[in-house]
Write a structure and sequence with these properties.
- This protein is an alpha+beta fold.
- The protein folds into 2 domains: 17-80, Arc Repressor Mutant, subunit A; 81-136.
- The protein has 7 helices and 8 strands, in the order αβααββαβββααββα.
- A 3-stranded antiparallel sheet has the order 1-3-2.
- A hairpin with a 6-residue loop joins β4 and β5 (78-80).
- 11% of the residues are buried.
Length: 152
């Protein structure tokens, strides 16, 4: 009789599932940065979890903190991007091209650089981020809280 893994466990074995937290050594290899720099960035982002024997980094928080950083090819330096092209922006915000263009125009974040017949369109990330904040929904209390203070 062959034991079969549950589909959810099988995906972890094949590493098809993205990890929420990673060890600091893995993050250092991923970003090609020293451990001290990664710790400082993760601490600033609130993504550093110090356990008794290991240090974990919460990926989503670190990525949100570093979302405008761009690695310079051929070096280990990162620079903060202020402007992106339409394709990059739509990928960064997980929005379709046309919707991203509409929202960028509504935000007033579009910069057109015309050079002869071909032109470049850049979107300011700072202006677009400010515009996106108006779509944020307010926090709502849960119907059935998982934990209530004072009850034991």
């Amino acid at each position: 009789m062959v034991n079969q893994l549950n589909p959810t466990i099988r995906s972890y074995v094949n590493e098809n599932v993205s990890k929420r937290c990673e060890r600091i050594e893995e993050v250092c290899r991923q970003f090609d940065m020293s451990e001290e720099i990664i710790k400082a960035l993760a601490c600033s982002a609130g993504a550093l979890y110090q356990l008794p024997r290991i240090t974990l980094i919460y990926n989503k928080k670190l990525e949100n903190y570093m979302k405008h950083l761009y690695r310079v090819p051929g070096t280990s330096k990162y620079v903060q991007k202020k402007y992106v092209r339409i394709g990059e922006g739509s990928i960064m915000y997980s929005i379709g091209h046309h919707r991203f263009i509409e929202m960028a125009r509504a935000a007033g974040a579009v910069y057109k650089i015309n050079e002869g017949t071909g032109g470049t369109v850049l979107i300011s990330l700072d202006i677009f981020d400010d515009y996106m904040e108006q779509f944020r929904e307010e926090q709502r209390p849960m119907k059935n809280p998982l934990w209530t203070q004072g009850k034991e």
